[in-house]
Amino acid sequence: MAGFKTTRYGDRHDGVRQFDQIIGTSPALEAVLEKIERVAPTASTVLILGETGTGKELIAKAIHNISPRYDRPFVKVNCAAIPLDLLESELFGHERGAFTGAISQKIGRFELADKGTIFLDEVGDIPLLLQPKLLRVLQEHEFERLGSAQTHRVDVRVLAATHRDLEHMVERNQFRSDLYYRLNVFPVALPPLRARREDIPDLVNCFVDLYSRQMGQRVEHIPEETMLALRSYAWPGNVRELQNLIQRAVILSSDGVLPNPLPSNRLSETVTVMSKSPALREVDRALILQTLEASGWMIGGPEGAAAKLGLKRTTLLYKMKKLGILRPGQSRGTEISMAVFESREPSATW
What we know:
- The chain is an alpha/beta fold.
- The protein has a domain at 12-191: Rossmann fold.
- Helices cover 41% and strands 9% of the residues.
- It contains 15 helices and seven strands.
- It has helices at residues 27-39, 56-65, 84-92, 109-112, 131-140, 166-171, 177-183, 200-215, 224-232, 238-252, 264-270, 278-294, 305-309, 313-323, 338-342, and strands at residues 46-49, 74-78, 117-121, 142-144, 151-153, 157-162, 186-189.
- The strands form two sheets. A five-stranded parallel sheet has the order 2-3-6-1-7. A two-stranded antiparallel sheet has the order 4-5.
- Helix 9 packs antiparallel against helix 12.
- The chain is elongated, with a radius of gyration of 26 Å.
- 36% of the residues are buried.
């Protein structure tokens, strides 16, 4: 998911149209929005690539919304969610009696999207046997319903999305090369959330506002250490994972304060930042400092910084030494020795 708010506004009828439900101002996201603005006015097929949870459907909807077809149907199909033996009927329709259980005529999604846009989500899951028929409708704009010899023509703009590596699937004969090249006219690669950490505070505030209103909860304060933890986490599930965790945090909030929704086993990941870039090391350092200050510089114990970060006491001490974090009033010449790091004796302070 890309976000849950608009970043640009305008009147549809003046040619400046908004991007629905997208939030963020990071360079990575801005580069995507610029590509969307360029391709949306055309009739070109767009292949949206990205990890699960990055917002591929939102991007497809945004392309449709700022295209000349914005007032026509936007029909979406999750190709991975429909049983393989029913997918052809879903896409192209069928006549009564075409197969067992076909008790009436069915209009397929391509016909429903005529003059509009069809969004084929998880297009990499379309079976090989069905791919020639999809290729035909992309190239010739025509098809037959199951059980019929009558050819139907449609004017449909196709947007497709996948988290799979289609090029690799082509090499392994799991996806037709001609279909891949026909889909890959204009690729748009969505960045994972960890590549646009600058957008996390805006996303968090947006989701907090959304779920607070939905649930009638009052959330007035997000602790700085909580926000730093959220910014430092790797987010393998991307914006969808962030959205779900913020929903949980709003449910658990009390006294108007948003708790840190990251479980302890994930908190440890926030201080083991996957990238070694100086910017993320600073986020790492700031998170530890904030947690130390919030715990009164207590290292061990159930209320100590190590427990709040989901780390062993010795691991936290090691990270503090590595990041050059000193207790107020301590000089570098009196840094704690490595013997302390190896100690297993519990201690509330050092």
